Amino acid sequence: MAEPSELLTAGADVLVAGGGNAALCAAINAARAGARVLVVEAAPKFYRGGNTRHTRNLRCAHDEGNEVLTGPYPEEEFWDDLMRVTGGETDEELARFTIAQSKELWDYMNEQGVRFQPSLGGTLSLGRTNAFFLGGGRAMINALYRTAEALGVRVVYEAEVVDVEIEDGFFLSATVSHGGTRHRIAAKALVAAAGGFEANIEWLTEAWGPEAKNFLIRGTPYNRGSMLRLLLDRGVRPIGDPKQCHAVAIDARAPKFDGGISTRLDCVVFGIVVNRAAERFYDEGEDFWPKRYAIWGRLVAAQPEQIAYAIIDRTSIDKFMPSVFPPIEAASIEELAGRLELDPAALRHTVESFNAAVRPGSFDPAALDDCRTEGLAPEKTHWARPIAEPPFYAYPLRPGITFTYLGVRVNRRAQIVMDDGKPSANMFAAGEIMAGNVLGKGYLAGIGMTIGAVFGRIAGREAGHHVRN
Q: Domain named FAD-dependent oxidoreductase 2 FAD-binding: which ranges (predicted)?
């Protein structure tokens, strides 16, 4: 087996920066187009795959169900769902293109050795819209690596692009650092698939201010945005707002980095959420959780000290997939407040006011039911039930950043667009680094993997065609 230094000095037709879903789809398609492909992954081999390691599924449009997907998910429904969460802040052409292309992902992933399974219980009710990976994200990424390496793709770990040479929008070379040595790689095409800047706390603080120091990073600590910064500094046109991101409310006891999906909390719709003043601040039952869970990171980020608390009682403790951390339990609301270091009288007032406002209905977690409040600010519009049966439970919440939306602008061929509006002939992007073209704000469960796979395939194909021509 060749040493990493030999792989780096051997040259390549296509250089792929990154090691997750988008990067591997690009590498596979470029190799199938006949190109010599080199993948440089900043993480060690054990942590390869970026945020893909923590995923469970991808969202794909399809006209009929199959052995895993429980029913059809038409393109127009996918589009409506995307419009609802983004509020229209998306490039419609690229978004509709992504959705149309997603119909090919089931077959494509199977061809690469990725296997699927029925959705697990408590996974946001996604059995119809999302295909779940057998063995999760790590199994999925391992399958892509096996396929890529069988095609002759070379991979070097703990290797980071630290400089790029671009002239008039044309990629000439990249400098890759590995083991303290820098290597110049004059590839014929570059695919940037190295993620966003979510693990770069300094950059997050530039956008958010000091509150960013309280954010937790759900994914890999290796997505620091160095590739993105290089491209933006060298004349690539940006897309997206640096404050927009996929941010969910996760268990505040999670580690600073790499906690993954097991730290996400899905209990919000079944109770109330209060801040440090023990006050509610948003409608917990606004819509189905798959369409609203990704707004809660930003909501908590706006609260004092960037922390909140989800409060439920005995009737709801078995209605959701729990966090890896146990709930904080108490026999009374006052005792629970004490354990959370909240004002007991204030929390009791909030809970009693909520309970008094609840209007009886037919509770149904699978429907937008008629269990609601009346005369409350903010109202809870669905799944409202009194919090009255002990024991009482709480989960502390903090903003959990998955990935950022500031990125590089691309076209339908995954070509990176320069500041003058012209697409680069030999630079392509896929995955989180260009997701802001589709996601101006908000998030749909599984769509990050969709964007990465769709544009990874295209970037690899186009890079391979460029090399051949």
A: 13-447
